[in-house]
Write a structure and sequence with these properties.
Number of domains: 2
Order of helices and strands: EHEHEEHHHHHHH
Oligomer: single chain
Helix content: 55-70%
Distance between the termini: 29 Å
Strand content: 5-15%
Number of strands: 4
CATH architecture of the largest domain: Up-down Bundle
Structural class: alpha+beta
Strand order of the largest sheet: 2-1-3-4
Bound molecules: glutathione
Radius of gyration: 17 Å
């Protein structure tokens, strides 16, 4: 199997961390690509008609895309237990919250990094950042207990979302008012899987 990925993508990082945490790194080859909404990598387009990463090609089977589909597949592939039955709906909701934070944070990055200065909408950026703030608040207020239990896909997703905020939006300081979440993250980001997939600037 091949995973189309990039170093900075928080969605792809979810899969990369999963591969390392579940010992599947030798069975899935990571193929790094450069793609953007304005210029899709042809290999990505061939794998995913909407041109997004991550995408997972499988021999003699359909290609999978969208991080949540891929993580679910790789988890069930080896019965890794990252979606435990007894807390399934909580884990999926935490993953959805983390993905929503990523959606907004990536959208701000595209707005501010790829559009000409005069076309950048500060209203759009502020509205997206408010979603990030509300998402972080919910993670700290409602989900900290689940974040502190045995490893699951909710935790991996939250860590990848927060790491992306540090990578692209550190000046906005998501940690403000989120001390407990920040403390949880500082411990989680020391895991080998996170260190191995860390990227600067
Ligand atoms: N819902 C998707 C989002 C994936 C996504 O937005 N990936 C970005 C990179 S972080 C991308 O491929 N952007 C290129 C594009 O939008 O054409 C997932 O969970 O995989």
């Amino acid at each position: 199997m091949e995973l189309l990925t990039s170093a900075a993508s928080p969605f792809a990082r979810k899969v990369r961390v999963l591969l390392r945490e579940t010992g599947q790194i030798k069975t899935v080859k990571e193929v790094h690509v450069t793609t953007s909404p304005y210029k899709s990598d042809p290999k990505v387009l061939a794998a995913n008609p909407t041109g997004r990463i991550p995408a997972l090609t499988r021999p003699e089977a359909t290609t999978l895309y969208d991080s949540r589909v891929i993580t679910r597949f790789l988890d069930s592939h080896i019965n890794a237990g990252l979606y435990p039955e007894k807390s399934l709906w909580d884990v999926l909701t935490i993953e959805a919250t983390a993905d929503a934070i990523m959606d907004s944070a990536v959208s701000i990055s595209y707005e501010t990094r790829t559009r000409p200065e005069g076309l950048i909408s500060s209203d759009w950026v502020d509205a997206q950042w408010l979603k990030v703030v509300n998402g972080c608040k919910a993670l700290q207020g409602n989900w900290l207990v689940n974040l502190n239990g045995p490893l699951n896909m909710g935790q991996i997703s939250v860590a990848c979302a927060l790491a992306y905020l540090d990578l692209r939006h550190s000046a906005r300081n998501w940690r403000e008012g989120n001390d407990a979440l920040a403390e949880w993250f500082s411990s989680f980001e020391g895991r080998r899987s996170m260190v191995d997939t860390h990227v600067d600037g």
